[in-house]
Amino acid sequence: MFAALVLKEFLQFDYRKLSQFLRNAPEFRATIGLQEVPHFTTFQKAAGRLLIYPRARRLLRKTICIARKRRRVRRRVALAAVDGTGLESRHASSYYVRRRNGSGKTWQKTTYVRFPKAGILCDCQTHMILAVVPGRGPKPDIQHFRAALDQALAIVQIDTLAADAGYDGEGTHVYARQERGVRTLIPPLAGRPTKKPPRAIGDEKWRRV
Question: Residue 206: is it exposed, middle or buried by C-beta count within 10 angstroms (0-12/13-18/19+)?
């Protein structure tokens, strides 16, 4: 069921389309061990049960363990990357919301100011997701850095972690390098529209490396 729900999100299906797709794909059903295709409402109920964060986190961890046993991902990851991504809060797309905005009806003049967000850390070689930290946006990406790194390091070893300027900060480097033993690659661009190296303040040093 979890594999089928992952496929649903990847192909951007609704539950009815997922059910029909699986009926027409016996090879895929055999791969994930699904003998019979359940009613589409069964997938809907399974999503509410399986995608609760603690349970989904355990399923992700189990998936990575299986991938390691099958040598799809190594115990030691040479290069990983972390980033935050915003998600749609409903099936209606942002384009649909913009088109309806300003149509003259008061209930249609509101766009979303809060949205689901997730910090995702993955292996750059295999694109295997190693950690997911859910939250709500808009919030700075740096807030989920430690949780994502800790979650990934509980399963694999990471040599180098790359991130964009949203994670720029001396504390980020200190935690990853000095406390967790992970080399960090983060451009020092926060609040600095210049090509000069950042000025060291106090004990700061890693942003200049």
Answer: buried
Q: How many residues does the chain have?
A: 209
Decide if 77 contacts 156 (C-beta within 8 A): yes
**Max Cα separation, the chain?**
64
Placement of tokens 């694999």 in the chain: 156
Q: Give the H or E element holding residue 22.
A: helix 15-23
What is the SS3 assignment for 150? helix
Give residue limits of the domains in the chain.
74-208
Could you tell me how many helices (H) and strands (E) the chain has, helices first?
Answer: 8, 5
Give yes or no for a contact between 116 and 35, defined as CB atoms under 8 angstroms apart. no
Q: Give the CATH fold of the 74-208 domain.
A: Nucleotidyltransferase; domain 5 (3.30.420)
Taking only the tens of pLDDT, the chain with its 209 residues reads: 888 988 888 888 889 999 999 999 999 899 888 889 999 999 988 888 877 778 878 888 888 888 888 888 888 999 999 999 876 655 555 555 555 555 555 444 455 567 788 899 999 999 999 999 888 878 888 989 999 999 999 999 999 999 998 898 888 999 999 999 999 999 887 665 666 666 655 556 777 66
Peptide bond into 140 cis (omega under 30): no
Residues 6+ apart with CB under 8 A from 67: 73, 126, 128
